[in-house]
Write a structure and sequence with these properties.
The structure holds two protein chains of two kinds. By secondary structure, chain A is α+β, with helices and mostly antiparallel strands. Chain A is built from twelve helices and 20 strands. In chain A, the strands form five sheets. In chain A, strands 1, 8, 9, 10, 11, 12 and 13 form a seven-stranded antiparallel sheet that branches. In chain B, helix 1 links the parallel strand 1 and strand 2. Chain B is elongated. In chain B, about 55% of the residues are buried. The chains are: A alpha+beta, B alpha/beta. At the A-B interface, strand 8, strand 11, helix 8, strand 18 and helix 10 of A face helix 1, helix 4, helix 6, strand 15 and helix 10 of B.
Chain lengths: ~425, ~900
């Protein structure tokens, strides 16, 4: 849930009256682009990526133009450009045209919740316009502040004074930066970063801070961001159909965050508990299809829905259905296992049998009743299984599931298919 | 800005020692104590901790209590009222939903000056609220735990505060020892405690810290309080990526740190919380490094490479924690707290390879589980059939479900479209046993059901005829009959089914049609067999047994009855057939023993309803509708008998096919339909928590009384419409595609007429003008050309058979004409109700044309067909509700009702 770039950023900044560079979207006409060049003298052409992708500048993905021909050439170059940064990959869906803001000073500003200070914290430097990581620590001020009173002007003033910022930029920043707290705190953000803010001089030489790039992250658990009325497609970056469908079930009752690890994987592992999720995903590696945490005592109907969606997308390719978690504190094993067993039976009823080995590692309330239901269902469906209690090391159970997966790949799946009277 | 706490923290911390975390002196108030999670967790916490919860809150729930073994915990509307009533507490536990957490914490802090600790269990609290909660706690000097945590527990004090650490039996996992546990994962807090016992390590405190962005009682506070707790000799810390809480930690006691989550760095996009955006240096690799530097080690500890120092070890697998702890403590000259308990080796508790050989290393034999699980496993092995949890079943069903997108309903996972391909007898029994019948099952079901249709000499028939004569609609006629099939009329057959289950359930019988299964040991138990036998020969019983034999049906239970010395009663035979049908699902725990017990009753009601649809004069001692009972029993399917009851003749193959499709489509439309509601209300009113008191026949009467001219009888509307359209068309065989009629022209003419009528009615302001039945659908609309997928399915079925239906064809011409003549803006779909009408009319056309059936008879036949189909779905609801429901659970609270004056 992130937004980068000025197209949406400028719109959000306008809510709190923070000055922004002029920006046009991909639909801008030649006349509009030309008028922007006439007004600003120079424009930047930036590819439009959904979600958050950093380091565009360094990758040569920012075009500059002083005339319409160059602007259109850059538009053509960048309109569908592909960009890789770290493990993230993105394809542009258009470009923005942003008016250049002539300035002597560039400022970096961010608000985030710092785990070091355990408070909302501003990060500020007047050496902006570059990666914050490249600056030395004494060039940056990190100042926590009290969320009950908010980001106050004196916090900015003190920070800039301590950094030795030029006097002429302090007053305009002190007047404008506190506005960003409103945007950050009241619209469900977890991070807000403006870099650079360029200090534009008016005719009298007085400076105004102008936001020239924008990044923010939203808190999925905070409904306040919905008040911004942002179109849903902004957040539909690269989630798969499966992730979208299953994450719709996200409610406060029980976790349900799910990620696809390898859509060609062969172990489908509904995992219970954040710890188990971390451990199991790590040990399964590319064998895992999804990484999930279904703990938090999900009610029967929700668990069945989650299982139904997981099975719909991935059961056919799975060699192993691996239900794994530690010794649950509060998750009712009977309810969750009954839900998964029911979903499995429905799957077989609707789509016919599929060769599958079921490995379970679990502990918690109503464990034996839950295992009993699962056992009866698997016996009825003719599927082989092995269930371990919480006194078998979870990592060993993972190894066992991987052993079964290898055996399935090496002919076990075919034999099981024949046993079920179907093709492998 | 904040009060002075302990240590030299830059913020307030109140806990000096881990020994102060959870003590026997702490008194607790639980917010939202009657919420679903608290309701299951709080009593255990209270009992484990010696009764430390003084009260709870629930707005509007003042005066209620939470029951525990140590007595009731009172509930107040708010904290203020609880305090005013004389209660005092130091710890607030928050079980509120996320949006209420911030205000709940504010309430605790503002109202209670004695407050010291707040524990927030709730997940998915927004970061915005978390930062405000942090500030509130700091301002007032309160220690906060969570959110998204399971609280804290102390094995020495036997106290747990907040959530469910240690699960439903905390003493089982939290053994007194010398290791303090701090974990970002709630589940792993308990799991680590359990794992440690395998190396002989017990715990002092267990802290589930939560792993939201804000962790209020985090690693630095833990490290500080660890140093001041004399009981804790060592610590385990389980940490996940995100946040700088562990950087530069000052640990004064040996610690095993488990850092998991390196994979998260490989994801193509951010996951979780802190540092997600900048990709900053708080990932798992960084955290491993922090701890390795703290401990002065250069590698991760594994059993193969046991790298550790006296200060500690870093592991990435929680299974390595116990051995790492032992190794680290050995360097400190300290041995475990107690002898090791169990091991972490692989110990399967359940396994079945289903006859497929596995390689030796994967073929790990099942071992007996540790107590008390071994006893529980033994107990469930003895249990026969399923036990379903009870819940309020108003508008809920465990039997049927309508997919709101496709409008296709399912019953026990079988879509009504697929049900059209199963026989009526199979569907009738499937409604109760949750599986379709195999060929043998169908043979037996046909005999049992057909044996019940003949009501000659029975008061049931008298009642039905009287109801018919009084001008009642078919549903009321059948209801009159159904009312008489009361518990006493089913008692003997139900008892027989019960006894058979009792006798055979632990004898290893898997296939109830197994010809080789030895029934001799059961036959020998003469005392048990007495209830199956009558003093004299029972003709009906003999006819049934002979019919089963004639059909080649197999049943271990019938063979058992025949083996007894004496005369098995027809009730015993019915019970034996029912038990045969239900045996597989019962053994597979798909159904409860109570369903098997009621199955003979349902079978009797099914047969009775079919029989009662036919006037009294058609029932004689030896025949039904003019066909000898021996013949019906030996060679007719129930569907054929039902057809005979409606149409007075045995159906052709094509007619049978249409009839089956019809019945299948009608089975159910989910629990919300009026008929299902009637059935469910009948069960709820009897009180399913005492299932024996539920009168199945009364519940089925509830279904019947909840059908009528608008629900069930309305199929006739479309038939009447078609009769009007085709009255002068001279059609003799609606199955003949060469009918010579110009359907588009006929439809066009009618649409013109309808258009004029509609304009006229609108002109006089009558918006309730007559609509054309069975076209258009609220879901399947909005496209240029629309289809009801159910209609498409059926049309395809008949097309594949080469089966033509003139009326169906006309309907398609009609929707096209409506569009062509601009009455509709799109080509409407022909909906599924039209399909039902056209199928039925095709069947009825001949007798109607020949004058054998009047228009009124057509209407009765259409309505009764609906009842025959729908009784399948409603029986499923009755049985499901009986097994799952609660007393009077279909009532609507008065607050949800309104008066319209």
């Amino acid at each position: 849930m992130q937004i980068t770039g000025m197209l949406t950023g400028a719109r959000l900044l306008r809510y709190v009256g923070f000055p922004t560079a002029e920006v046009l979207g991909p639909e801008a006409s030649t006349d509009e682009i030309k008028a922007l060049i006439d007004r600003c003298g120079e424009i930047f052409i930036k590819p439009l990526f959904r979600g958050g992708v950093g380091k565009k500048g360094k990758s040569g993905l920012i075009g500059r133009a002083r005339d319409i021909q160059t602007a259109l050439q850059e538009k053509e170059r960048l309109y569908f450009v592909e960009h890789r940064h770290g493990n993230a990959w993105a394809k542009a869906e258009g470009v923005t045209f942003e008016g250049a803001v002539p300035a002597e000073h560039e400022v970096y500003f961010a608000i985030t919740d710092s785990t070091k200070f355990r408070a909302p914290t501003v990060t500020i430097t007047h050496h902006g316009g570059m990666d914050i990581e490249e600056l030395s620590r004494d060039q940056i001020a990190e100042i926590p502040f009290d969320p009950l009173t908010g980001l106050k002007a004196f916090i900015i003033a003190n920070a800039l004074t301590d950094l030795g910022a030029p006097d002429e930029i302090i007053s305009p920043l002190v007047q404008n930066l506190p506005k960003l707290w409103d945007l950050f705190h009241n619209y469900g953000m977890t991070t807000l970063e403006l870099n650079p803010i360029r200090m534009m001089a008016d005719a009298s030489g007085r400076l105004t801070p102008v936001a020239c790039d924008f990044k923010c992250g939203f808190d999925q658990d905070d409904p306040n961001w919905k008040r911004l009325g942002l179109p849903a497609h902004l957040f539909a970056s690269d989630t798969s159909d499966f992730e979208q469908e299953v994450n719709q079930l996200r409610t406060y009752q029980g976790q349900s965050d799910v990620f696809v690890i390898n859509d060609k994987g062969t172990i489908l592992a509904p995992t219970f508990g954040g710890g188990a999720n971390a451990l199991v995903t790590e040990l399964l590696g590319d064998d895992a299809i999804i990484s999930s945490d279904f703990g938090g005592n999900p009610p029967f109907a929700k668990m069945k829905d989650i299982a139904r969606i997981c099975f719909k997308y991935y059961l056919a390719q799975s060699n192993v259905l691996f239900i794994i978690g530690g010794k649950a504190n509060n998750t009712d094993i009977y309810e969750t296992f009954r839900a998964m067993a029911d979903a499995l039976r429905d799957y077989f009823n609707n789509r016919g049998p599929t060769p599958l080995y079921v490995v379970v590692g679990r502990g918690g309330p109503n464990l034996i009743r839950g295992m009993g239901v699962m056992r009866d269902t698997l016996d009825a469906l003719g599927l082989p299984y092995r269930f371990f209690g919480h006194d078998s090391a979870m990592s060993e159970v993972v190894n066992y599931a991987q052993g079964i997966n290898r055996w399935m790949k090496e002919g076990g799946r075919k034999r099981l298919a024949a046993h079920l009277g179907i093709g492998g | 800005m904040h009060p002075k706490g302990v240590g030299d923290f830059r913020y307030y911390v109140g806990i000096r020692s881990l020994a102060e975390l959870a003590t026997r002196e702490d008194r607790v108030c639980v917010l939202n104590i009657l919420g679903s999670e608290s309701r299951s967790v709080t009593p255990t916490s209270h009992e484990y901790s010696g009764g430390n919860i003084v009260f709870g809150t629930g707005p509007g729930r003042a005066g209620q209590v939470l029951k525990t073994k140590l007595g009731n915990i009172p509930v107040y509307n708010n904290v203020r009222d609880g305090l005013a009533d004389g209660h005092a507490f130091s710890t607030g536990v928050v079980y509120l939903p996320p949006s209420g957490v911030r205000d709940g914490v504010a309430e605790l802090i503002r109202v209670n000056p004695l407050l010291k600790k707040v524990i927030i269990l709730t997940e998915k609290v927004s970061v915005r609220d978390a930062r405000l909660i942090r500030a509130l706690g700091q301002l007032s000097g309160i220690d906060i735990f969570g959110a998204n945590c399971l609280g804290v527990a102390d094995a020495w004090n036997e106290v747990r505060l907040g959530g469910a650490l240690g699960g439903s039996a905390p003493a089982e996992s939290l053994k007194k020892g010398s290791v303090a546990i701090f974990s970002n994962s709630g589940n792993f807090t308990t799991t680590i405690a359990v794992y440690l016992t395998t190396a002989g390590w017990g715990s002092t405190v267990s802290i589930s810290s939560g792993k939201d962005v804000y962790i209020h009682f985090a690693a630095p506070e833990f490290a500080y309080a660890l140093g001041n707790d004399d009981r804790s000799k060592a610590a385990v810390m389980y940490v996940e990526p995100g946040g700088y809480y562990e950087r530069g930690l000052k640990l004064s006691k040996p610690t095993v740190a488990c850092v998991v989550g390196r994979w998260k760095a490989k994801l193509s996009r951010s996951v979780g919380h802190a540092g997600a955006m900048a990709g900053s240096g708080d990932d798992a690799a960084a955290k491993e490094r922090w701890f390795m530097e703290m401990f002065g080690v250069d590698a991760i500890y594994t059993p193969d490479n046991p790298v550790c120092s006296a200060k500690g070890a870093v592991v990435t697998n929680i299974a390595h924690i116990p051995v790492a702890m032992t190794a680290v403590m050995a360097q400190n000259g300290v041995g475990p707290d107690f002898p090791s308990q169990g091991s972490l080796s692989l110990k399967p508790w359940f396994a079945n390879a289903q006859g497929i050989d596995l390689p030796a290393e994967l073929e790990i034999p099942v071992v007996e589980a540790v107590a008390p699980y071994n006893e529980q496993i033994a107990a469930i092995s003895q249990q026969v059939g399923a036990i379903l949890p009870r819940q309020a079943m108003k508008d809920c069903s465990g039997a049927s479900l309508m997919d709101p997108k496709t409008q296709v309903s399912r019953i026990h996972g079988l879509s009504v479209l697929d049900a059209t391909q199963h026989s009526m007898e199979s569907n009738l029994v499937m409604a109760l046993i949750r599986e379709s019948l195999d060929a043998n099952g169908e043979k037996l079901a046909n005999v049992a059901l057909t044996a019940e249709v003949n009501l000659a000499g029975s008061p049931i028939l008298v009642a039905a005829d009287a109801a018919r004569a009084a001008g009642n609609a078919p549903n009321s006629v059948l209801a009159a009959a159904c009312s008489i099939v009361g518990p006493k009329r089913a008692e003997a057959a139900r008892a027989a089914a019960d006894r058979l289950v009792e006798l055979f359930s632990h004898q290893g019988l898997e296939d109830p049609a197994d010809e080789t299964f030895d029934v001799a040991p059961m036959v020998a138990n003469r005392e048990a067999a007495a209830i199956f036998l009558g003093a004299e020969r029972d003709l009906k019983a003999e006819q049934m047994v002979a019919a089963v034999a004639a059909r080649g049906g197999q049943s271990v239970f019938l063979r058992y009855l025949q083996g007894l010395k004496g005369h098995p009663t027809s009730d015993a035979v019915l019970g034996a057939i029912a038990t045969t049908l239900a045996w597989g699902p019962l053994m597979r725990k798909r159904i409860s023993p109570f369903t098997v017990r009621n199955l003979p009753w349902f079978l009797r009601i099914y047969g009775t309803l079919i029989g009662a649809a036919v006037a009294g004069e058609q029932h004689t001692a030896r025949s039904f509708c003019g066909v000898a009972m021996e013949e019906l029993l030996a060679s007719w399917s129930l569907a054929e008998v039902a057809y005979l009851a409606l149409m007075g003749e045995r159906p052709s193959a094509a007619q049978m096919f249409s009839f089956s499709v019809l019945l299948g489509l009608i089975i159910t439309n989910g629990p919300g339909t009026i008929s299902a509601q009637g059935a469910k209300g009948g069960v709820a009113a009897d009180g399913p928590e005492t299932p024996e008191r539920v009168q199945v026949n009364k519940a089925m009467t509830g279904f019947l009384t909840h059908t009528g001219y608008a629900h069930g009888g309305n199929g006739f509307e479309a038939i009447a419409f078609l009769l009007e359209r085709f009255k002068d068309a001279g059609v003799t065989d609606p199955g003949d595609p060469h009918h010579g009629l110009d359907l588009p022209a006929m439809a066009g003419e009618y649409v013109e007429e309808y258009k004029r009528y509609k304009a006229q009615q609108k002109a006089i302001g009558n918006l309730g003008y007559g609509k054309i039945p069975c076209v258009n659908h609220p879901i399947f609309k909005g496209k240029p050309v629309n289809y009801d997928p159910r209609e498409v399915f059926v049309a395809d079925l008949f097309k594949k058979r080469g089966d033509y239906n003139l009326f169906h064809d006309y309907y398609h011409a009609l929707v096209q004409a409506l569009f062509d003549k601009e009455v509709s803006r799109e080509v409407y779909c022909v909906n599924v109700d039209a399909v039902i009408a056209v199928l039925l009319l095709k069947i009825l056309w001949k007798p109607y044309r020949e004058g054998r059936f009047s228009s009124a008879t057509l209407e009765t036949a259409a309505f009764t067909t609906f009842l025959f189909g729908r009784m399948i779905g409603c029986a499923a609801e009755v049985d499901d509700h009986t097994n799952r429901g609660k007393n009077m659970d279909t009532r609507t609270p008065a607050s949800a009702c309104s008066f319209v004056g």
